[in-house]
Amino acid sequence: xxxxxxxxxxxxxxxxxxxxxxxxxxxxxxxxxxxxxxxxxxxxxxxxxxxxxxxxxxxxxxxxxxxxxxxxxxxxxxxxxxxxxxxxxxxxxxxxxxxxxxxxxxxxxxxxxxxxxxxxxxxxxxxxxxxxxxxxxxxxxxxxxxxxxxxxxxxxxxxxxxxxxxxxxxxxxxxxxxxxxxxxxxxxxxxxxxxxxxxxxxxxxxxxxxxxxxxxxxxxxxxxxxxxxxxxxxxxxxxxxxxxxxxxxxxxxxxxxxxxxxxxxxxxxxxxxxxxxxxxxxxxxxxxxxxxxxxxxxxxxxxxxxxxxxxxxxxxxxxxxxxxxxxxxxxxxxxxxxxxxxxxxxxxxxxxxxxxxxxxxxxxxxxxxxxxxxxxxxxxxxxxxxxxxxxxxxxxxxxxxxxxxxxxxxxxxxxxxxxxxxxxxxxxxxxxxxxxxxxxxxxxxxxxxxxxxxxxxxxxxxxxxxxxxxxxxx
Length: 474
Hints:
Elements lengths: L18 E8 L5 E4 L2 E2 L6 E7 L1 E8 L3 E9 L4 E6 L2 E2 L1 E9 L4 E4 L2 E5 L2 E7 L2 E7 L6 E6 L5 E7 L4 E7 L3 E7 L2 E3 L10 E3 L2 E9 L7 E6 L4 E6 L6 E6 L5 E4 L2 E5 L2 E6 L2 E9 L2 E10 L4 E5 L8 E6 L4 E4 L2 E5 L1 E5 L4 E6 L6 E8 L6 E7 L4 E6 L9 E2 L13 E2 L6 H32 L2 H27 L4
Parallel strand pairs: 1-7, 9-15, 16-22, 23-29, 30-37
Antiparallel strand pairs: 1-4, 2-3, 2-5, 5-6, 6-8, 9-12, 10-11, 10-13, 13-14, 16-19, 17-18, 17-20, 20-21, 23-26, 24-25, 24-27, 27-28, 30-34, 31-32, 31-35, 33-34, 35-36, 38-39
Helix pairs in contact: 1-2
């Protein structure tokens, strides 16, 4: 027992007659404790002997947390208390350049700058500044207990983006080294961005196809994007032949009528079966977001054949003439001719094409059910034909026949025309250069002479070029 007025190990004076004891535990390590305004030495738990009876005030604190308690000691009393600390408070001051920016403290708008907010918990807080025509600024601020903390920022000019979409998206925005991924909450309002051209691409869910686009942001303006999402999947709808079993790529998907909406883009095979037999089928392609429909009531099993060629000719199917190729596309250098069949039975077929002046072309083709087979007919000229028709206007006007016997002078004409084209072209370049030099020197007679020679050389070059082209097929 300490004598009255003695100092204990904690630095507290004892009371003497009429005293009690006190034990204090603080729930946070490192807290500083004061008893009746006197700093207490040591660490929790604290034990005080022979304190004077009556009221005593305890205060414990850390940098951001605070707690206080008041106890009353009776004579020969022993009290035990535990102090739980809570966050202290401070004042937060908000300043921007320019002023008038909205202030959001931990996501809640509390006013506009300049602003002073008291009773802010002593801790870290997120502060966001927003002002039309300027970039949003977000920063973290630590508020000190019982002190005034100032958050000061300078706003940069910028624009804004508003995004509307017919589905849920997760956009990724990029501009050079700048990149951000707005949250769904950000998409509810304008997104502030630096001026310039931005790139947007989206991540989606639920079968939506992603979007990839660019947009321009200008200072003080709001750009609006209306994103129309399309399904990544295609769909196929089958009607007719009620209750027939529908097989898609060999897998049963149900009975007709039916619409299948989770169809991967690409090529697919559709077959209808009844009583174990195939009664209808078709191969088809589908793209993302595309809807394909088939009515199968009167559509039999079919195979189709298409023949394309650079020449006009007659088509034979299994030795029977079935038609002629029709002009599909007329070009400067060549034409494209085509022939389309009616429905054909599946299996092996021999296709032949005959054109005047060319060797016959034929091939064996295997037609697959419910699909279209396309052939490219490559015909070779018949060199044994003594007289062939060569036309400048391939559609109507034949020119006189040109003998094309082996060893004729046509090849020599072609070679000489090529050499003449090159030589005349060289002379044209020389005289054209001479004309330009004379013009710079102001020599009109020399210029006129060079111009005439250049014109003559150019004309000869054109004549030789026509001869070279006309004699090219030897």
